[in-house]
From TrEMBL:
InterPro entries: 2C-system_Tx_regulators, CheY-like_superfamily, Sig_transdc_resp-reg_receiver. The modification 4-aspartylphosphate is found at D55. Keywords: Phosphoprotein. PROSITE patterns: RESPONSE_REGULATORY. The lineage of its organism: Bacteria, Bacillati, Bacillota, Bacilli, Bacillales. SMART domains: REC. Coiled coil: none annotated. Residues 3-118 form the Response regulatory domain. It comes from Priestia iocasae. This is Two-component SAPR family response regulator.
Length: 119
């Protein structure tokens, strides 16, 4: 079982992501955030999930910048970036538990990522 947070600046995509992870019995949603500063505040208050679904393109700071900050606070954190564009972001996170999903995200893709982390 993984505790999960979602960070997505678009409310309709945030709700979409909640619906996509709901049927996955290995995931327990403990927080969803529309801005990077909200999730940073939650981490500072001691809320630290096992896994974060993290949008790459956000106005306040990029998901990549946020990922580095979150990993500094919790080094064993799993991050799954969600993006509409192909990136080479995984190169920035060698030796970390990081993956990437292209939007639109489907439940089977989420499950595939989770299975890879279990191996």
């Amino acid at each position: 079982m993984y505790t999960v947070m979602i960070v997505e600046d678009e409310p309709h995509i945030l709700n979409y992501m909640k619906r996509k992870i709901a049927p996955i019995k290995d995931l327990e949603l403990i927080g969803s955030f529309l801005s990077p500063t909200e999730v940073l505040r939650a981490f500072e208050q001691g809320e630290q999930p096992d896994l974060v679904f993290l949008d790459v393109e956000m106005p306040e700071m990029t998901g990549i910048e946020l990922a580095h900050q979150l990993l500094n606070q919790q080094q064993n954190l799993i991050i799954i970036f969600t993006t509409a564009h192909r990136h080479s972001i995984l190169d920035d996170f060698k030796n970390k538990r990081v993956s990437c999903l292209l939007k639109p995200i489907v439940t089977k893709d989420i499950q595939r990522c989770l299975d890879a982390f279990k191996e």
